[in-house]
Amino acid sequence: MNSTAILAATNKKLLGVNARLNETEQELQRIKAANVNAETRVTMDATNADIISPLPKNTARGNLGMVLGGLTATNLLQNGDVSTSITSVGVGSRLQTRPDGTWATNANFSAANHQTIDVRENNKYFYKWVLAPDTVGLTDGRIGLVYEDNSIDLVGSTDALTSKAGSEMITATKTGKANPFLVTSTVTGVIKRSYHLIVNLTALFGAGNEPDLATCDAMFPHYFSGTAHTEPQMVKVVGKNLFDESQLLQASGWSHNGEHYFGTLSAYNAAFRADGKSFSLGKFKPNTQYTIKLTGRVSASSTTARVYIKYVGEAEVAAITVTSLTDQVHTATSLAGKTIEAIYGGFGSGGTSIFYIKEMQIEPGSTATSYEPY
Questions:
Q1: Is 125 within 8 Å of 172 (Cβ atoms)?
Q2: CA 343, CA 340: separation in Å to the nearest integer?
Q3: Pair 42, 65: CB distance under 8 Å
Q4: What share of the chain is helix, strand, coil (3-state, %, to 5)?
Q5: How far apart are CA 210 and CA 200, in angstroms?
Q6: How far apart are CA 160 and CA 129, in angstroms?
Q7: Which of 202, 127, 196 is nearest to 167 (CA)?
Q8: 292-302 residue pLDDT tens
Q9: Residues 316, 344: Cα–Cα separation, whole Å
Q10: Are 331 and 293 a contacting pair, CB within 8 Å?
Q11: pTM, rounded to two decimals
Q12: Apex CA 282: angle with CA 274 and CA 347, to 5°?
């Protein structure tokens, strides 16, 4: 082979090598531009939720790191675990706590003789109490705040006449000092306490972000003194449907036949409307629309089952009304620009009639979508 032919063959090989080098260089540039082993770190605590955090752009291989923060809360009551008892109290007496943790009954405010807490108007407070196992006297499920001018706020229900434990949420209507109190339900017998606690939810979570009663019960399962840090127990993932239909079984006598949840309307009303008792959904986002969808029927004519929406600062409105004797799909969307305070169930007539309900869904947005179990 002459030198010309050898040179031509060599140049051909060099062209092939250069082409492969160009391909390799391009691949190296793509790898260099990619976020190899990129990581997004999300910090979640009691003050934030509903976080969507994508990995960085051009991620070739990545991880999602999650830091779960705990909760630091303060029990506003001092000596709340003092094993105190009291006798000879009348029905409806206000059971207040002295500075040393012992109990006394008094209808009026007293900064000297009873524990006072600093309260702020429109702040929400979680109050939990547990009586001793051997207590005979009981409280009736109501709690209150008596202010310096002796006016009071009172919430709760007398349903729990045989209860040895309870919890409620109360919103202060004044700013200043107040004596917290429980209400007694029995005349005879010694009332013995295990513990009680009060937490300012608004100060802890922010206005409009306070958790509901069921969440607070799970968040504060035990007594603590002063300021304490609690570690999170679990991460719960919830889909688009915010309503757990099994809550309907909280209504007295209600059952599930594999398709419908059903029971009397009077029990439905007592469980989910009386004294403002709502479906336990947790917080609603401010100025956000939600859509309710359900399939239901009633067992008798002239019967009206309802689902109510209550907006912040407004009276309740009947969002869904069920009067049909056969299953019908009902939907309702909350008003734009308003913040929902609660959604709850009740009835307009026919308390002894049976209400059948299935596939109830509450979801963010203004459109009812296909049913998805909670």
A1: yes
A2: 8
A3: yes
A4: 15, 40, 45
A5: 9
A6: 13
A7: 127
A8: 999 999 999 99
A9: 9
A10: yes
A11: 0.46
A12: 30
**Pair of tokens at residue 311:** 């907006």
Report how far residue 96's alpha carbon sits from residue 179's, in angstroms, rounded to the nearest whole number.
7
Burial class (CB in 10 A: 0-12, 13-18, 19+), 303: buried
Averaged pLDDT, 362-366: 94
Q: What are phi and psi of 129, to 5 degrees?
A: -135, 145
In terms of Cα–Cα distance, which of 180, 259, 210, 181 is closest to 73?
A: 210
Mean pLDDT, to the nearest integer, of 146-152?
A: 93
Estimate to the nearest angstrom the gap between the alpha carbon of 316 and the chain centroid. Answer: 20
- What is the C-alpha to C-alpha distance for residues 45 and 2, in angstroms, rounded to an integer? 79
DSSP codes of every residue in 54-92: PPPTTEEEEEEEEEE--EEEE--SSSTT---EE-S--TT
Give yes or no for a contact between 192 and 103, defined as CB atoms under 8 angstroms apart: no
Question: Which tokens go with 287?
Answer: 């100025």
Is residue 115 within 8 A of residue 84, CB to CB? The reply is: no
Least confident of 61-75, 332-346, 354-368: 61-75
**Token couple for 23:** 């391909």
Q: Contact at 8 Å (CB) between 110 and 179?
A: yes
Alpha-carbon distance 17 to 14, whole Å? 5
Phi-psi region of 150 (alpha: psi -120 to 50; beta: other; left: phi over 0): left
Identify the H or E element spanning 357: strand 354-364
- Find the distance separating the first CA and the last CA of the chain, reported in whole Å: 81
Beta bridge partners of 309: 317, 343
Rounded CA-CA distance 2/4 in Å is 6
Tokens of 146: 């008596």
51 exposed, middle or buried (CB, 10 Å; 0-12, 13-18, 19+)?
exposed
- Rounded Cα gap, residues 21 and 29, in angstroms: 12
Place of tokens 């059903």: 262
Token output for 296: 């239901």
Structure tokens at 255: 């059952």
Closest CA to 255 of 243, 238, 268, 242: 268
The encoded tokens of residue 350 equal 């026919």
Q: Taking the alpha carbons of 154, 155, 160, 164 in that order, is the dihedral positive or negative?
A: negative
**Beta bridge partners of residue 361, listed in sequence order:** 293
Tokens for 353, please give them. Answer: 């009639």
